[in-house]
Amino acid sequence: MSKFVAVVGNPNVGKTTLFNSLTGLALVTANYPGVTVERKVGRMQLEGEPVYLIDLPGTYSLSARSPDEMIVADVLLSQQKGEEPVDLILAVVDASNLERNLYLVTQLLELGKPLLIALNMCDLAERHGVAIDYAQLEQVLGAPVVPVCAHKRVGIDALRASLQNLLQGQTAAPKPLVTFSEQFCESVRDLHAELNQKQAVIGRRVSLFEALRVLADRGGYAEQRLVDALGEPFRDKLNDYRLRAAQDGAVAAEESITRFKTIRRILDRCVRVSPKRQDMFSERLDSFLTHPILGLVFFVLVMSIMFQSIYNAAAPVVAWIDAGLSLLVQGIDNVLPQGVLRSLLVDGCIAGVGSVLAFLPQIVVLTLFIALLEDCGYMARAAFLMDKFLFRCGLSGHSFIPLLSSFACAIPGIMATRTISDRRDRFVTILVAPLISCSARLPVYSVMIAAFVPNTPVLGGFVRLQGLTLLLMYALGILLAAPMAWLFKKTILPGAPPPFLLELPSYKLPQMRTVVFKVYRQGKEFLKRAGTLIFALTVVTWALAYFPPLSSNVEAVYENQRREIEQTFPDGDEREVRLAQLERDESRARLENSFLGRAGRSLAFLFKPLGWDWRIGVATLSSFPAREVVVATLGIIFNIENPEDESNEGLVSALRQAKRPDGSPLFTVSVALSLMVFFALCCQCGGTLIIIQRETNSWRWPAFTFAYMTALAYIGAFVVFRIGNWFENMAPH
Amino acid sequence: MSDKDLTQFAAGTDLTVSHVAGDGPVANRLREIGMIPGARLRVVRQGSPMIVQLGNSRFCLRGQEAALVKVQTAESVQGAEAKFSPVESPGTCLF
């Protein structure tokens, strides 16, 4: 029978690194039913038997104040829907912060489950002058303790051996260590007895540990759940129990102080601390990186380098992918005759999915930066620096990491809001997260910038205009997210600014394994989308742009013209030019006649104020389910017009050459900017809307998000086009 | 002697926690990370948010939260350790 091990620990204790070294890449992620807390399960083999490790969110204690923390408590108490009962708890403990980490351990000891303690960062503890008597600690805690250094992969084998021992043998659960006052215990037991009399109403048995949580965590999740089941008057009853348990009903204070008293006793017996000046490196670095001015300068510098790299570092790889696609197209051209199948493969599949695929390198670079910054400990400093600004919008530094993750993709960003305990702040963060420019916007920006923004050096050659434009597009999302958050916090979700309490972990060299895993997962996710959703949409768009064929009368007219040219101009350049021109005219007629073309032209009045023609409008409309499709649609529309070119290079030149009916260029800089701004602000992502629905448990919020963002996008694109157009008319070149 | 709170000390000051005021979620979380009577703190950066060092960890918190943490300067409380002496407590085992 397969065994289940729950991996728990405080935040920043190297839990993920340890988890990865035990399980490798065999990671399955899904959501717990009903809630969208991500369930990460890795598999490892112990003597040929599969063992499943459940990676639980980092938490300081089992008192739950956010959805994330509730899951931890429920999984450990084996009452989480969709989760197997846990056979063993693996607690990851930071040896250099033993006192604080043991707080959670004292709670874990009370769950009645076998417990294994991985004492991580032992090397760091030694450097801090903390000498731990492991054998003594094991004896006092009554649970096996294995010293490890997860980032150096030291002690992993010993940990595996211990896991195996515990899972095979009939291990008894360790004994609880903390003793509470007489009246405290009595009150918890009485509450427990009462709850179990009401078992039928609650619908399940309530454990003694849960009764303690209900009593101690005033206003917490455990209390709320019971009040939901038993009715509001039960809250008053709880307060009576609290008054009996502790002076002034301060149960939580009593609990934490009592636990720490026990922990002090344990530490006195197991740990010797030689007074060393601690972690000078982090401290010195922090005096610079959290400095109100220097720190901000550095922050802006890091962000600039990041966006500059996305554009520059990824360029050669993008070029290779393009070259590969061109070869593929040539191969198909040689093998297949002109016709529907060839058009489907070349104009549909390759032009569509291929042009989206070409952005994989840029997404990898962005994810790489975020993972590196997170792993080396800088992200928390950035959250600290940004708190001042987020505070002004009514949010807190806690919203920074969700918002920054949204640069890669709004979906993990929105899921990351689960660590925000205040409901209103969480919702406001969810509402503005899709405004942040995700990597799916990158394709649009890249193509538009490559086609219409000159790459002249600016600011003394440090940056180039293209990189700067990209940075500005990204900044636009943030610049609008701030006032929108402020507005939402003032109107629809009013409330005081949330509390902000965040640990700043010690700086460390990023763990290559952890970083690579993260990038790999994000890249895989993107490829999966490109292979499924985007592929399907691309084929549909291609079909809409290809069918119905021109009527035979019209075909005949073009055929006649062709013959005429061939007769009038026996050979030479003149004939080639005329034939190419004719072919373009025919393609255009075919596109205009297609379903897509008809729909686009009838909606042209909507796009006109933005400076777009019906083709741009159609491309935009088709990308509402997934915005990166726009590049594919542009590829389809303009490649059908210019059948010679299929690569992205080709798309760029096709866009440059695209003309309006009067012969003027379709895209001016202001049209390109208007399109980019629209894509920056519009919520063209079905996945995001679905995840908002799941997170908020209502269709109202995704509907609202969609409406406000579309309105914002339309207005933004309109304003940008008008201003840009005015400038272009002032200084024509 | 009336206690001052964390917001009232300049960066670099070594402090001892006398207590965390209140029974709300934030006060509880502050205690759970170790801000209990007798715990030693140092102000690393003052302001809102501010940074404090607690053991080997550094936390940032806003003025609003920092105001809950009542402290005394380290030298003014020699006896604070005694208040939190790790003697065997006569409690009962709940579980």
CATH C-level label of chain B:
Mainly Beta
Q: Structural class of the secondary elements of chain A?
A: alpha/beta
The number of helical elements of chain B comes to 3
| Helical fraction of chain A | 55-70%
List low-confidence stretches of chain A: none
Task: Describe the global form of chain B.
Answer: globular
**What is the CATH T-level topology of the domain at 3-168 in chain A?**
Rossmann fold
Number of strands of chain A: 13
What's the name of the CATH homologous superfamily of chain B?
A: Ferrous iron transport protein A (FeoA)
E-strand count of chain B: 7
Count of alpha and pi helical runs of chain A: 34
Backbone CA Rg of chain B: 14 Å
The averaged pLDDT of chain A comes out at: 85
The CATH architecture designation of chain B is Roll
Greatest interface by residues involved: A-B, 70 and 43 residues
- At the fold tier of CATH, the topology name of chain B is SH3 type barrels
Measured distance between first and last alpha carbons of chain B: 39 Å
Radius of gyration of chain A: 31 Å
State the helicity of chain B in percent bands. Answer: 10-25%
Distance between the termini of chain A: 75 Å
